[in-house]
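[Discussion] Sanity-checking designs against the backbone

I'm trying to build intuition for which residues belong where. Below is a structure token string of 470 positions. I'd appreciate it if someone posts a full sequence so I can compare it with mine line by line.
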């Protein structure tokens, strides 16, 4: 059975639009149709604006007809996490009422998408103030993971609706943010690709802050190839996807040294997760990749410091106490408890911890020189059902488990990417995570792209989510 153009890789969609195989309005109509088909059950969006999207598609089509080609994102449907400012759209940041009007102002990341004439379909749900890895949205409908047709499983957070928007087909690129895993976790548990950029590489201006030290914008996409296109369009150092691909294409899987450590990342994985990742690595080594055993104690040490000191809670509390003191009384209880813990940490202890994390990051960067990338499972547990995280104790335990493998990259100043490689024992997607020193996103993308060309994209390898199967 033939598939619609919207399901193809981004570069193929762009070519189809220019070849006249499909019109810009037809593409957006298909995205709207798919949201209508699945969105009522999946709840990806806080704000959805089909008519605005159609209007933008008409305008973009006119520009291309007049000879103005803005690049591969031109006319493509994208979703934006509801902590980004988007002109003409409200920002709630997971709170029960809209934030002040200044948060409708677009920053450089959304500006780059606008410059490429991408079409914004709407704003996806987020955990309140982006503080939470599970994906519960206390004041709004929690998005549903489309991989479980029987139970309401979570989609990961804090970019809770981002991966769902890709799964339902209403967007081909979804913008999220990653402070402790909030791009990679929802990407992993919904079968998508998620790129965590290095802190400071992309501006966070125009994005509601949680932790200014650690916040990073990043895209979720349906393939590594699409992630590279999005990266090239947004990154100030690039802007030309073809030039980036010429660099990435020079790396083959037989060129890769994949670092693997036995501690921290692999302990206590749910059935099928470690097995699925190791099976994918076996396929890669069968094609010539080399596995290099690499001790990486910095990961565990950074994670222990995060659990003790709650750095995101400390910085988030500071921001909210200054900017939105009126929101404290309506906070999601799961968010409030982390702020309460943060209040107990002294300024001396926090500054000391940041200095220790910088030292650990320097040691990790030195260690990673032995390999091209470090690989590990992205999320070590099966995403729970909403009912399974209904108690404070269960929520706290699950929060720690879902961030265990992602948070070291944030605390150590690394960049990273997750790509889907398997289904676990519960039939939920399993992500393979790549990590490299900060500033080496191109290395991560090259390694992941070489691996994707052996393993296949998520849709090719896993098939469609049960709730989005036609």
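Best answer:
Here's mine. Compare freely.
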């Amino acid at each position: 059975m033939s598939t619609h153009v919207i399901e193809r890789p981004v570069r193929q969609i762009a070519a189809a639009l220019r070849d006249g195989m499909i019109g810009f309005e037809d593409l957006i109509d298909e995205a709207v149709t798919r949201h209508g088909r699945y969105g009522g059950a999946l709840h990806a969006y806080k704000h959805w604006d089909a008519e605005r999207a159609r209007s933008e598609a008409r305008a973009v089509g006119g520009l291309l007809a007049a000879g103005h080609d803005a690049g591969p994102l031109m006319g493509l449907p994208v979703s934006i996490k509801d902590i980004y400012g988007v002109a003409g759209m409200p920002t709630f940041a997971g709170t029960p009422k809209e934030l002040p009007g200044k948060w409708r102002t677009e920053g450089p990341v959304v500006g780059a998408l606008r410059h490429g004439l991408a079409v914004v379909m709407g704003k996806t749900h987020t955990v309140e103030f982006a503080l939470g890895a599970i994906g519960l949205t206390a004041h709004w409908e929690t998005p549903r993971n489309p991989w479980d047709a029987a139970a309401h499983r979570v989609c990961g957070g804090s970019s809770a609706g981002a991966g769902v928007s890709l799964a339902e087909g209403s967007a081909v690129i979804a913008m999220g943010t990653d402070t402790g895993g909030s791009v990679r976790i929802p990407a992993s548990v919904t079968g998508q690709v998620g790129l965590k950029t290095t802190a400071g590489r992309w501006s966070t201006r125009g994005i509601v802050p949680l932790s200014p030290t650690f916040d990073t914008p990043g895209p979720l996409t349906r393939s590594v190839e699409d992630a590279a296109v999005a990266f090239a369009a947004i990154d100030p150092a690039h802007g030309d996807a073809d030039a980036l691909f010429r660099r990435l294409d020079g790396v083959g899987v037989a060129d890769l040294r994949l670092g693997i450590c036995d501690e921290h990342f692999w302990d206590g994985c749910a059935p099928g997760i470690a097995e699925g990742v190791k099976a994918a690595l076996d396929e890669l080594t069968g094609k010539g990749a080399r596995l290099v055993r690499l001790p990486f104690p910095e990961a565990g040490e950074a994670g222990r410091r995060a659990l003790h000191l709650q750095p995101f809670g400390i910085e988030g509390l500071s921001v909210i106490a200054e900017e939105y003191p009126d929101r404290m009384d309506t906070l999601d209880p799961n968010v409030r408890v982390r702020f309460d813990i943060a209040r107990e940490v002294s300024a001396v202890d926090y500054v000391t911890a940041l200095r220790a994390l910088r030292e650990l990051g320097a040691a990790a960067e030195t260690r990673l020189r032995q390999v091209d990338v470090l690989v590990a499972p992205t999320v070590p547990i099966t995403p729970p059902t909403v009912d399974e995280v209904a108690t404070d104790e269960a929520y706290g335990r699950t929060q720690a488990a879902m961030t265990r493998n992602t948070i070291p990259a944030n605390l150590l100043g690394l960049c990273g990417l997750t790509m889907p490689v398997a289904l676990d024992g519960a039939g939920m997607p399993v992500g393979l995570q790549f990590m490299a020193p900060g500033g080496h996103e191109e290395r991560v993308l090259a390694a992941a792209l070489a691996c994707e060309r052996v393993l296949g994209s998520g849709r090719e390898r896993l098939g469609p989510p049960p709730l989005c199967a036609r």
